[in-house]
Amino acid sequence: MKSRSIIESFNYAVSGIIYALKSERNMRIHLIMAGIAILMSLFFDFSKAEFLLLFFAITFVLMAEMFNSAIEKTVDLVTDEFKPLARLAKDIAAGAVLIAAVNSLVVGYLLFFNRLNPYTNLVLFRIKNSPIHLTFVALALVIILTIGLKSKFFKGRGTHFQGGAVSGHAAVSFCVATIIAFIANNMLVSTLAYFIAFLVGESRIEGRIHTIYEVLSGGILGILVGILVFQIIG
User: Fold this and answer.
1) At what angle do helices 168-184 and 187-206 cross, to 10 degrees?
2) Contact by Cβ (8 Å): 145, 221
3) What pLDDT score does 198 carry?
4) In this predicted structure, what is the pLDDT of residue 12?
């Protein structure tokens, strides 16, 4: 019962994220900007500390926007009349989002400004020596794209985490298999990695959580992102 409760809580959390993406335009804008920032980080020689600051800034903005949306919905639930305190609560929540957005702009400026010089394109060659960095970027892009596709094409069947237009499990597992194939450069290891990814996809179909099409689309998404990051960019 305890593990089941944890899974249910996770499903509710994912549903909240998807709802915020579908109903809040600013949330979609923040997510797009986050994807762009993560993708741009591939072209620059970020240290682990700088990469961590970038992820903190992105998470901070997304969390603030979701808190703002939750406060707005709560105020609307309590009263549908104009009240100064209700407006003040919404304004304060919006101010928190503004502070988070300004913080992200400052972080982005400090991280990217000097690196936007055309001569710094030489750091592209150094990315090849950073498979760990590329791995986290690939997985982050897969997760962002999966959430975006679920938000766009969700048909109301099941929960956002259990179901949806794209299988997130298949996308992540096939992306990981592709990453392992590039790093290991060994046919046996690569075959085993893709076999495990296939089993993950098969389990989603067997459990009637996803259709074959949804698992295939997730697998293709994961493979394409892995190839994009490691072969084309890296």
Assistant:
1) 180
2) yes
3) 92
4) 80
What is the C-alpha to C-alpha distance for residues 67 and 64, in angstroms, rounded to an integer? 5
Q: Which of 138, 105, 113, 101 is nearest to 44 (CA)?
A: 113
Give the pair of three-digit tokens for residue 67. Answer: 């808190």
Query: What is residue 128's DSSP assignment?
Result: T
Cβ atoms 231, 42 nearer than 8 A: no
| Angle 129-130-136 from CA coordinates, rounded to 5° | 160
Q: Is 162 exposed, middle or buried (0-12, 13-18, 19+ CB in 10 A)?
A: middle
CATH topology for 1-122?
Helix Hairpins (1.10.287)
- Find where tokens 């498979």 sit: 131
Contacts of residue 130, defined as CB under 8 A and 6 or more positions apart, other chains included, come to none
Global pTM reads: 0.55
Helix (H) or strand (E) holding 158: none
Successive 10-residue mean pLDDT values, the chain, 234 residues: 67 82 84 85 80 90 90 83 82 89 87 64 50 75 80 61 73 89 82 91 84 87 84 63
User: pLDDT at position 123, please?
Assistant: 46
Angle in degrees, CA 179, 205, 1, rounded to 5:
95
Count the residues in the chain. 234
In three-state secondary structure terms, 42 is helix
**For residues 138 and 211, what is the distance between their CA atoms, to the nearest angstrom?**
24
DSSP per residue, 62-101: HHHHHHHHHHHHHHHHH-SS--HHHHHHHHHHHHHHHHHH
Per-domain boundaries in the chain:
1-122, 128-234
Catalytically active residues are 65
